[in-house]
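Good day; I would like, with your permission, to put a structural problem before you. A protein sequence and the structure tokens that stand for its backbone fold form the material at issue. The record follows directly beneath this note:
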Amino acid sequence: MPEYRRANTPGASYFFTVVTFERRSLLTTDFARQCLSSAWKATRQKYPFDEDAVVLMPDHLHCIWTLPPDDSDFSSRWRMIKGIFTRSFLKGGGAEGSRSHSRQRKREAAVWQRRFWEHRLRDETDFRRHVDYIHFTPVKHGHVSKPTDWPWSSFSRYVEGGQYTPEWGTVEPEDIRNLSVGSE
């Protein structure tokens, strides 16, 4: 069995990619967004983190979190978010994918891919490049022609804060073309 090594730097900022099981398009439905919002809030109450940037796509999400100075445990946060979301989603009538024997044996629902991808952001340049990647993702995937048209991201917050103009992102930024961002 492979041994996964996770970054372990207290107080660091991390970029994440989290994907639905079998890349099912469900995250941008009203119901799934409500479930995710509740799971996110409950998790932040128990395990605080700053949400620096986020984009919600139909079958995956990207985000950047900064953890508290004495904390590096993002895995517990994702386990809690996925667990709360899954229970709420299934209880409310959401459907899971077909469960493998392994998932049945482990009593795992087929809503999320088992793992997630993380990258510890090394410096301000790395941070900025990943924020740009997050906000350009809806354009990259052909859902909109400019980030301002995608309702499920932190892009508007960045425009309001003066970090972007509303016209930003109609062309892919040069410095994000070769980023490694997980299983996209």
Notes: The CA atoms of residues 40 and 81 lie 6 Å apart. The beta strands are 13-19, 50-56, 60-66, 117-120.
